[in-house]
Amino acid sequence: MRADAQRNRARVLAVAAEIFASEGLSVPVHEIARRAGVGTGTVSRHFPTKEDLFAAVLLERMKELSEQADALTGSPGAFFTFFATLVREAAANRGLAEALGGAGFDVEAAAAQAGYDVTARLNALLASAQESGEVRPDITYPDVKALMAGCLSADLSDPATLDRLVAVVSGGLRGTARDS
C-alpha cells in the first residue's frame, strides 16, 4: 500500500474511532470522510461497508483489551480490574456500548475470530477468581454481562457515579477470599 493510502487509512480509522466513541454508530460514512479530510471513495476503498469500518475500529480496541486481560492473568484481583476496565471502556465509548448491546454488529464474534476474544478472557478471569475464592461460585458469565449492562444504564455523565456502581457490583460479586 502506498504511503499516502496508509496515512489516509490511519486517519479514517482515528477519526472513525473518535466519532463512534462520542456519537455512536449512527454517524454516516460521508460525515466520517468529511471530518477525516478525505472523500467517501477513499473510505470505501479501505472499508467497503460501514460495518467493515466499525469492525476495524473495534478490533483494534479488542486487541488492546485482550492484551490488558492477558497481562492481568494470574494476578490477585485481575477479574475485578478487568471488569472495571470493560465497564469504563463501554461507558466512554458509545459505539462499543451499542455494539455490546447488540446494535447490529456482533463484536464478540468478530473479536473471537480475529483472536481477540475478550469474552473468553473475561470468562477465564472469572473462573480463576472463583477458584481462588475471590468471586462467588454461583456467578456465571451471563450474570457478569447483565451486571455490566446495569452499570451502563445509569447516567454516566458523572464518573463518580460509574465508579460507585462498579464498586457496589464488585462488592456483591466477592467471594469468601475477601474475609481471609
Write up what this structure looks like.
There is one protein chain. The protein has helices at 3-23, 29-36, 40-46, 50-72, 78-92, 94-100, 107-114, 118-131, 141-152, 159-173. The protein has 2 domains: 1-48, Homeodomain-like (Arc Repressor Mutant, subunit A), CATH 1.10.10.60; 58-179, Tetracycline Repressor, domain 2. The radius of gyration is 18 Å and the shape is elongated. Helix 1 (3-23) crosses helix 4 (50-72) and helix 5 (78-92) crosses helix 9 (141-152). Helix content is 72%, strand content 0%. It is mainly alpha-helical. It contains 10 helices and no strands.
What would you say about this model in short?
It comes from Acrocarpospora macrocephala. One of its GO terms (molecular function) is DNA-binding transcription factor activity. It contains ten helices and no strands.
What is this structure's SSE topology?
Elements (H helix, E strand, L loop, with lengths): L2 H21 L5 H8 L3 H7 L3 H23 L5 H15 L1 H7 L6 H8 L3 H14 L9 H12 L6 H15 L7
